[in-house]
Specification:
The chain is of the alpha+beta class and 97 residues long. It has a domain at 39-97. The protein has helices at residues 2-5, 75-95; strands at residues 17-21, 51-57, 62-68. The longest helix has 21 residues, at 75-95. The protein starts with a helix and ends with a helix.
Length: 97
């Protein structure tokens, strides 16, 4: 895909990014003789991908969680991205269906 959009970048490395929209509650696990714990996001000190964005719609709000590799991104970078993402969501809501 990168080669189609920008041929000069086809061999460049890009971070893996995962967007997830959560629309259901986690399932209950009924496993005999096994105990489980479902952790809320984010799990401190663990990044599932280099950048993981979890979107959780609720009745009148949307919660967005950013998990990221601190080896690749600074907190300031993610705060700027979060601000831009918030503005994009706000613009989409304001423009209506």
């Amino acid at each position: 895909m990168v080669a189609l959009v920008s041929p000069d970048l086809k061999d460049a490395l890009f971070p893996t990014v995962l967007f997830t929209v959560i629309t259901t509650e986690p399932p209950a696990l009924n496993l005999q003789e096994v105990s489980t714990t479902i952790h809320a996001l984010p799990v401190q000190g663990v990044a599932r991908n280099e950048l993981y964005v979890v979107i959780t719609p609720e009745a009148d709000t949307i919660t967005v969680t950013f998990e990221y590799s601190t080896d690749l991104f600074t907190q300031e970078t993610l705060e700027a991205w979060a601000g831009s993402f918030t503005e994009a969501l706000r613009s989409a809501v304001d423009s209506g269906p």
